[in-house]
Amino acid sequence: MTTSNFLNRMEASAYLLDVWSLRRSVSYLNQMAAKGSGPKFHKGGRTPLYAPADLDDWAKETIGPAVLSNIEHRLLAAAGQA
Q: How many domains does the chain have?
């Protein structure tokens, strides 16, 4: 059985910045959780807890694919792939 060290919202915010260079404040993570648009989380009582693997998956989706030019990015976005 694998175990994961869960991160609270403050730690998740720091993790996203340190690992993925995504600046997401604690309050913004809270807003995204309310809308269902943020990373997956678990509840430990009243405390939201994030698994690093879930943060990684969400960050990869948020960043999107690598492209060689702005036009390629626009074309992917228009096709719904970015």
A: 1
